[in-house]
Design brief:
Radius of gyration: 16 Å
Structural class: alpha+beta
Helix content: 10-25%
Distance between the termini: 21 Å
Number of helices: 4
Number of strands: 6
Shape: globular
Largest sheet: 6 strands, antiparallel
Oligomer: single chain
Order of helices and strands: EHHHEEEEEH
């Protein structure tokens, strides 16, 4: 499936352990789905192989997340998670996740997540390196 403005997607199934007493995916699991999708997204970009240490020395931490639950997923659904970068700031970036039903294409959840590049010893924001920024800006569907 394709979605306008997204060059990347990944798929996974809802597991029994992810549903709650109402037989729908428990709300906190959607952040886990975003984490799975983000991991696959970063692998897809090839940034680690392209930039090596410049990327592996970069450490992003979640700063803010906004989630809109439009329709629940249920056990056995296949989710197609679309991911793109919507904003690159001086020390942060925002990713957009759209979680869709893989068979019907219906949009179930949107997640906007801001992550901040931090200096690990101090835990303070650190500017995104120029080569990392250039690489990210060149990705397809980055706006």
């Amino acid at each position: 499936m394709t979605r306008p403005d997204f060059a990347f997607s990944t798929r996974f199934k809802v597991r029994y352990a992810e549903i709650d007493g109402q037989k729908v995916v428990f709300n906190s699991r959607y952040l886990e789905y975003a984490d799975v999708a983000a991991t696959d997204f970063w692998d897809w970009t090839g940034i680690g192989a392209a930039l090596g240490a410049a990327w592996t020395e970069t450490e992003f931490h979640v700063r803010h997340t906004a989630i809109d639950y439009l329709k629940p997923f249920v056990w056995g659904d296949t989710i197609e998670a679309f991911v793109r970068i919507t904003r690159i700031g001086s020390s942060s970036l925002t990713q957009r996740f759209e979680l869709c039903h893989a068979e019907t294409g219906a949009l179930h959840t949107t997640i906007d997540m801001t992550i901040v590049n931090v200096d690990l010893p101090t835990g303070t924001p650190r500017a995104i390196a120029d080569d990392v920024r250039a690489y990210l800006e060149a990705l397809p569907a980055t706006s």
